[in-house]
Amino acid sequence: MFSEYPVPEPEPGAALVRISLANVCGSDLHIWRGELDPRKRGWPLPRHQGHESTGRIEALGEGVRVDSDGQPLAVGDRVVYRYFFPCGRCKNCLNDRSRACPTRYAFNTSAEQWPHFNGAFGDYFYLRPNHTVFKVPDDISDDLLVGVNCAFSQVVCGLDSARLGMGETVVIQGAGGLGLYAIAVARERGAGQIIVVDGVAERLDLAESFGADHQIDMRELPEPEGRAQRVRELTGGWGAEVVVDVAGFPQVVAEGMQMLAQGGRYVEIGNISPGLTYAADPSFWVTNNCSIFGVHVYEARHLREALNLLDHGRARYPFQKIVSHRFPLEEVNEVMAAQADGHITRASLVP
Ligand SMILES: [Zn+2]
Ligand SMILES: [Zn+2]
User: Fold this and answer.
1) Could you read off the pLDDT of 52-85 as tens digits, one per residue?
2) How many CB atoms lie within 10 A of CB 316?
3) Which end of the chain is more exposed for a tag (fewer CB within 10 A), N or C?
4) Residue 94 alpha carbon to ligand 2 centre in Å
């Protein structure tokens, strides 16, 4: 459903972005398929959908003269930004956990209420006061940039939380946009062995082109036990130090746990839909000394790091392959269907 709203004048400390490109993210698909009811997360309807995007500064509120790096910021500048707005003064914000600020989401406001533009699928996005925004080098195209403020920063935060270290083996469950970025981030952090699990040929090929060391094809190994066994074979019987779920279905958690080494760390990013569960055996976590990191959104520094890696890692990783298709925003419903069947990695929408 498309609606029109008055374009907001930025209040002091705020800014308005004119969206140039927005991606369909996995979490948009969870909502579109009805697996995630926004009301269960406390997000009122109607909701301005979408969050992964980039654009240009359209207007600056009073007092906003520089970006979050202290560089001069002006109308017309191309920018990336966090799509959520931690308050900056609560207990979590003050303890390096602004991603857990209770009031961070613009989605807490219905699209009917000012400032209306709380999502990415539209002409504008409103950057509330206390926003994080970075000016972008001219030579990074919108196609490269558009995945930075969700998928890319999300996996930077996930692997940072689990402190993935040099020489360690990481298993990445799912080779969509997040999984591909995770390969690059894991390599940059010095991972020894990167193993990717997926069941779609195009995605496995992409994983290889990003430098994954091993691809586990779910069509060849249809049972979770077989895939866990394969990880053990590839790690001299030990299992992986870190396993990351970016597939987003509860059953992959049980499978990923079986791939962990003693003392391993499990990073849960993909499952965001309340009420979807799996049968767990907590004794496994205890007797295997496992840690579980639930990671949702990210700190400002992770956006900075993702932008840096995009800028300086372009020669090493084919980031341009992640966004596979551009469509007009009006075709958003058809695009959702095409991406849901797995043959479009990450579709971009042009308003
Ligand atoms: Zn997202
Ligand atoms: Zn806060």
Assistant:
1) 999 999 999 999 999 999 999 999 999 999 999 9
2) 13
3) N
4) 7
Burial tier of 314 (Cβ tally within 10 Å: 0-12, 13-18, 19+)? middle
User: What's the pTM?
Assistant: 0.95
Q: State the Cα–Cα distance between residues 17 and 80, nearest whole angstrom.
A: 10
Ligand closest in space to the Cα of 53: 1
Q: pLDDT of 306-318, one tens digit each?
A: 999 999 999 999 9
Distance 317 CA to ligand 1 centre (A): 21
- The string of pLDDT tens digits covering residues 257-308 is 999 999 999 999 999 888 889 999 999 999 999 999 999 999 999 999 999 9
Q: What is the Cβ-side half-sphere exposure of residue 76, based on CA atoms within 13 angstroms?
A: 0
Before 318, cis peptide (omega within 30)? Answer: no
Tokens of residue 333, six digits: 């419903």
Distance between CA 193 and CA 186 in Å, rounded? 9
- Maximum Cα–Cα distance for the chain, whole Å? 61
Listed residues: CB within 5 A of ion ligand 2: 86-87, 90, 93, 101
Element (H, E) at 347: strand 347-350
Tell me the CATH number of domain 152-294, given options 3.30.70.100, 3.40.47.10, 3.40.50.720, 3.30.70.920. Answer: 3.40.50.720
Q: Would you kindly state where each structural domain of the chain is located, as residue ranges?
A: 15-147+323-350, 152-294
Q: How far is the CA of 258 from the centre of ligand 1 (A)?
A: 27
Q: Contact 178/269 with Cβ under 8 angstroms?
A: yes
What is the number of other CB atoms lying within 10 angstroms of the CB of residue 115? 23
- Classify domain 15-147+323-350 at the CATH topology level: Quinone Oxidoreductase; Chain A, domain 1 (3.90.180)
Strand, helix or coil for residue 296: coil
